[in-house]
Amino acid sequence: MNKILEARNIIHRVKNREIVNIENLQINQGEIVSIIGENGAGKTTLMLILASLVKPSMGVIYYRNMEIERNIKDKDYRKKIAILFQENLFLETTVFENVAIGLKFRKLPREVLEDKVENTLKLLKIFELRDRRAKNLSGGEAKRVCIARALIIEPEILFLDEPFTNIDSASKEEILSDMGKIIKDNQITTIMITHDKYEALRLPERIIVMENGKIIQDGPKDEVIHHPKNNFVASFAGVENILEGSVLEKRDGENIIEVQGRLVNVMGSFEEGSKIYLFIRPENVFITRDGNNIKTSVRNHFKGKVRDITNMGHFYRIAINCNFNLVSYITKTSFNELSLKIGDEVVAGFKATSVHIIEKI
Amino acid sequence: MELLIDSITKALELICNLDRETYQILWLSLKISTIAILASSIVGITTALYISSKEFRFKNTLITFINTGMAMPPVLVGLFITILLWRNGILGKLDLLYTPAAIIIAQIILATPIILGISLSAFQGFSEKFKLQMLGLGASRLQLYLIMIRELKLPILSAIMAGFGGIISEVGASMMVGGNIKGYTRVLTTAIVTETGKGNFDFALAYGIVLLLLSFSINMILTKIQQSSISRHE
């Protein structure tokens, strides 16, 4: 894959506080990457550094192996990118003029500019808004104008900083779908910062997780979801069961973990006495009313009481208290067969192989 | 009361007949203040942009000086310019004292801090994210500054109006550095002082009314530009 962007030994400090510390980060041509992390993790600062809008205290950024500011001027590099923030940040003028602004910065002739604006407005289904004042638009319309403004300049790299916050979910899905199609059709390298699980998983193929200014996980979407490296990533990836325990025994690639007085079998080779986190996806937790019906390969099953039942539309979310809290997602059919009620005694279980574990630091 | 009515009647007659001298004074006042306000606007706005976009030591001290300059007494400016342009002064060789150029210099010094101070506070309040957004769409620094000026035209026009109001009505500095020479450096404000001193209240009132009309006309044009952009914001 062709490397389009690379950050090497980036350290950025503000008032002696280290905000970003990245040894090496490479973004390949056409990749769609989401950067996730808690508030203050340094995501936005990293994005601004990559976009050459903030000069890092140390380190260099390369665009197509050219060092920014040495081999390519930062203003020339910025002509190849577009950025879209959470806020709409419109000029006090019409939709047409707002969308055209990037082309005006590039001094395109008026007739070319008009054609391009009209095509882009049509592509994003907002042509009828062209003469409206941008600041008077609704949330979804305004966001489409922002996307049109960014995409019209045909950027090689598109930076998105929590772009869909404050938009209702129906509009968000429509916009993401339309924008995703354009990005993929045109192979635009996209770096998206988000807090939203849906946004982070909808388009990107690669997820970068940041914590305290550092990248703590970077990999394909599936790998990050199934093998989260910390609690934040786990809960972000939809792992509702995050348990804390300590290793009681280590044998043949297996660990016996004590969790709230109960013993859990997991695949692992942590030393005895180690403190660890267990991550179990709720779809991997089964429920039965009769403990005798459990398959023999299932090593972990615990008696407990149904604490909460939530109808999630296509499935049910069942919370069970079995000394520790366990959440299970079951289908409507299973729910009806089990005819569960709050307070019912059940047996909940999961396979040792469905538990992902990391050491608690 | 009779004196006032007589003076107003005569003043109106003078205005209607607009004699050569009154026309000359009006034209000189307009010319001097227009040149001064244009120069002050360029210096004030660009300096405000520069200061707002840079971080440096003693920035707050500099801003305090600028804000103090907004209330600078015209006679003090007049005194300062007179010392500079005096025959033995630092700029004495330029031979500018008691010329229209000297009044322009004094008015630039008076108006610049006003325009600079008000513009600076507008630029400092401008959204940092907005600047990043424009740069992130490919704007050069110059294009960004032009956008900022366009987006902030309301406070900037207010700054220019305040600056113009300050110089068109000042008398101390014009009197000191211009010398109030008839037909050469006499402007509307110095003419009012002269005619009042001579007891020619009708002339003084006539100049006063012309000054008010001039100020009103220019402010009307600026207000029209300002209000049209407000209505477009709604």
Please tell me about this protein's structure.
The complex is a heterodimer of chains A (361) and B (234). With 361 residues, chain A is of the alpha+beta class. Chain A is 26% helix and 38% strand. In chain A, strand 4 and strand 5 form a beta hairpin. Chain A is globular. The model of chain A has no long low-confidence stretch (mean pLDDT 90). Chain B has 234 residues and is an all-alpha fold. In chain B, helix 10 (188-198) runs antiparallel to helix 11. In chain B, 36% of the residues are buried.
Task: Summarize it.
The complex is a heterodimer of chains A (361) and B (234). Helix content of chain A is 26%, strand content 38%.
Q: Count up the helices of chain B.
A: 11
What integer is the average pLDDT of chain A?
A: 90
Shape of chain A: globular
How much of the polypeptide of chain B forms β-strand, as a percent range?
under 5%
Distance between the termini of chain A: 35 Å
Which series of helices and strands of chain B comes N to C?
HHHHHHHHHHH
Low-confidence stretches of chain B: none
Give the fraction of residues assigned to helices of chain B: over 70%
What class would the helix/strand composition of chain A place it in?
alpha+beta
Strand order of the largest sheet of chain A: 6-7-8-3-9-10
| Biggest pleated-sheet summary of chain B | none
SS elements, strand count of chain A: 20
- Assembly type of the chains comes to heterodimer
Structural class of chain B, by secondary structure, is mainly alpha
Radius of gyration of chain B: 21 Å
Distinctive features:
heterodimer, A: 361 residues, alpha+beta, 20 strands, 26% helix, B: 234 residues, mainly alpha, 11 helices, 79% helix
